[in-house]
Amino acid sequence: MLLPLSSHNVIQYLQEVGVCSSTDGASNECELLESSQNNINLLVKLADNRQLLVKQKLNIDNDGTPHEFFNEWLFQQLRQQFPVLGNISAMAPLILHFDEENSILVRNYLSEYLDLSRVYRHNDEFPAEIATVIGSTLAGLHRATFQHREYRNFMATAPQGQFRYSFYNPAQGVDSISPEIFGTVPTEALKFYVLYQRYESLESAIADLAYEWQPCCLTHNDLKLDNILIHSRWQQLDNCLVRLIDWEACAWGDPAFDLGTLLASYLEIWLSSLVVDPSIELEESLHLAMTPLEVLQPSLLALIRAYLNAFPMILEYRSDFLVRVIQFTGLALIHQIQATINHRKFFGNGEICKLQVAKNLLTIPEQSVLSIFGVSESEILNPLVKDHKLPQPEKEPQLIRLYYEKTRLRGC
Questions:
Q1: 106 - beta bridge partners?
Q2: Whether 354 contacts 336, CB under 8 Å
Q3: Other CB atoms closer than 10 Å to residue 317's CB: what's the count?
Q4: Is residue 396 part of a domain?
Q5: pLDDT in tens, 1-50
Q6: Residue 336 located in a structural domain
Q7: Neighbours of 201 (CB within 10 A)
Q8: What sign does the dihedral 232-235-236-241 (CA atoms) show?
Q9: What is the spatial distance between Cα 328 and Cα 345, in angstroms, rounded to a whole number?
Q10: Phi and psi dihedrals of 352, rounded to 5?
């Protein structure tokens, strides 16, 4: 049975597990941060000016073994085991204590850092310098672990008493509708499932994306702007300091998924500012956005260019890498819609617009590169081919056919 934490017993718990001593009384009362029905987040301020974030998952698996934070703890063990990852400052160790039995994680709270999503929305500015650092940082993680079996084997470690048969493929579409959905989803949200199933090309594109999923490096798997912190004084510092947090979903995966999820989080700023009305066409709504896509494009372009400059090898591994990133961006937008339906029980005209954009990204990704970045795929990749001497795809030789295209068997 879980030991439920609260502001009344969290200090005592921290003392019992040795995170703080009995002389470290709390300088202020514990603050309950934004939580959900599945987890609780407590900010604890100690007398020595330390601040701790205490997280607890309240839901457990049916087998009664709560291990939601196991991956995040495992990732920290990985960093300590392999110094190459330990040198990536954006992923500095934060975890002080992991209690698997009670599903509790304690980590340092970075008081000098701010949530990048809130910074963007508060200032309504999107400096390309920040996106550049994020792109190069993410590339550093993917490049350092790329095709290294020792990292893959380490991340295959399972919680005690359990087995990890394979890594989860995140390229999943919408589950088929069952009668149970009518009791969990509001009536207006059922329109999403009707629209989704109407587009066979959409389901086919997601199925192909899942089929071609190729895990080759360590991935964050939940890299949204909410999970990126930036130093409050980044403009005054020599380096734009960012931190990537919440590694609960990290695993051996496809790097295109991380980039696609991140780009979708940027596009969410644009799509959530649309002026939507049944009388307004989609194209007009997209152009009437309070935060136009053109304002975000310099950051989007800086992000992808910084990533590819730091990790050009990925283009040798997958020549269609940029196209796959765009498709994963569309898939992430669909996941955003599902999250809105599941948590907010809402589906409106804004989500219909988002679904249409997601469909375009998934089904016509080559054309969508220009729409999202403001430049063509060749304009992004050609400088890399020149600078890094990447191999060009070979053209098929023009040979004369020595056979009939429609061969018929005798007697048929």
A1: 54, 97
A2: yes
A3: 14
A4: no
A5: 577 888 888 888 998 998 887 765 545 567 877 766 678 889 998 877 88
A6: yes
A7: 11
A8: positive
A9: 24
A10: -65, -40
Instruction: Say if residue 210 is in the same domain as residue 240.
Output: yes
Q: What six digits make up the tokens of 124?
A: 């309504």
Query: Which tens digit of pLDDT belongs to each residue from 67-126?
Result: 568 888 999 899 888 888 877 878 866 789 999 888 899 998 888 899 999 999 999 999
Domain count, the chain: 2
Same domain, 244 and 357: yes
User: Are residues 187 and 93 both part of a single domain?
Assistant: no
**Tokens representing residue 68 in the block:** 């939601």
Cβ 264 vs Cβ 111: under 8 Å: no
Q: In which residue are the tokens 């329109």 written? A: 191
222/336 same-domain check: yes
Are both 100 and 120 inside the same structural domain? no
Beta bridge partners of 400: none
Q: Give, in order, the Cα–Cα distances in Å from 155 to each of 88, 147, 148, 321, 400.
A: 18, 13, 11, 24, 51
Amino acid in the structure at residue 158? A
Beta-bridge partner residues of 31? 43
pLDDT digit string (tens) for 278-310?
A: 777 777 877 788 999 999 999 999 999 999 999
Same domain, 104 and 149: no
Last residue of a domain, one of 63, 86, 108: 108
Q: Is-contact 129 299, C-beta < 8 A?
A: no
Alpha-carbon span 127 to 113, nearest angstrom:
17
